[in-house]
Amino acid sequence: MVNVLQFNKDAWDKLVGLKDRWTIPVSREEIESARAGKWHVLLTPCKPVPEDWFPRMEGCDVLCLASGGGQQAPIFAAAGANVTSFDNSPRQLEQDQFVANRDGLEIRTIEGDMADLSAFPNGSFDFIFNPVSNCFIPELHPVWNESFRVLRQCGTMITGFVNPIEYCFDSELADKGIYHIKYSLPYSDLTSITEKERIRLYSPDKPVEFSHTLEELISGQLEAGFHLTGFFEDFRAEEKIKDYMPSFMATRSLKP
Questions:
Q1: pLDDT tens digit string along 12-42?
Q2: Quick one: DSSP state of residue 160?
Q3: N or C: which end of the chain has fewer CB within 10 A?
Q4: How far is residue 145 from each of residues 115, 150, 155, 244, 247, measured CA to CA in Å?
Q5: Taking each helix axis from N to C terminus, what angle separates 90-103 and 4-17, rounded to the nearest 10 degrees?
Q6: CATH number corresponding to 4-164+209-254
Q7: Sheet holding 151-162, edge to edge
Q8: What stretches in the chain show pLDDT beneath 70?
Q9: pTM for the whole thing?
């Protein structure tokens, strides 16, 4: 039985060493621009988040949820927010701390499971930033419930996620631009394919992934108490699938 939390912690720690795109810290120049009020961040791989999705950053208490890597948290801190970066990967948190030390920023870093925010009292934050990361955990309801709890009234959460239909395709054929439905939803790297197939198709060290239904992704937020106030879709940058459908979605949700 795979301990998903530990396995994906180790996997993301290794990806830092491999300089995966989502582990590379922002530059000094980007920090200086953010200090001057000129910044953007990514919630999904390509499309910048609309400016009106963000609260005023000056003095805002921000939780970067499963968002380590030295990218978004330092930008928010440079823009004037009080930032907590909460991530399962110690080395991803080190990337946030690296930028903080390099550029004189204050970022609180805490290691933990995105589905367990018991480290924080009720109503701790004004804003939660949760980029595409819930594909690395099997169960979403605790994430939505805990996020709702730690937000203050009228606080907002923005989150990105993978379009579930992507997990239906035969991955080997998809690499060739052929999109053949092979797997039923919800998909899991642990149950939809064998361990031998997972290692052959991906690698033994790649984080294990899980699809989630749109009902879990969207209705789950509504059931937790959120009001949905924004939505956009995003496409992959290079893969052929970008010619056919968006691969990512993002929501903005309000705690009334």
A1: 999 999 999 999 999 999 999 999 999 999 9
A2: E
A3: N
A4: 9, 9, 14, 34, 25
A5: 40
A6: 3.40.50.150
A7: 107-111, 82-87, 61-65, 125-130, 151-162, 248-254, 227-234
A8: none
A9: 0.96
Helices assigned H by DSSP within the chain: 4-17, 28-35, 72-78, 90-103, 141-150, 171-174, 195-201, 214, 220-224
CB of 255 closer than 8 Å to CB of 155:
yes
Q: Which residues are paired to 108 by β-bridges?
A: 84
Task: Quote the mean pLDDT of the chain.
Answer: 96
Domain ranges of the chain: 4-164+209-254
Assess contact for 220 and 144: CB atoms under 8 A: yes
Encoded tokens for 40: 């953007």
Distance CA 153, CA 157 (A): 12
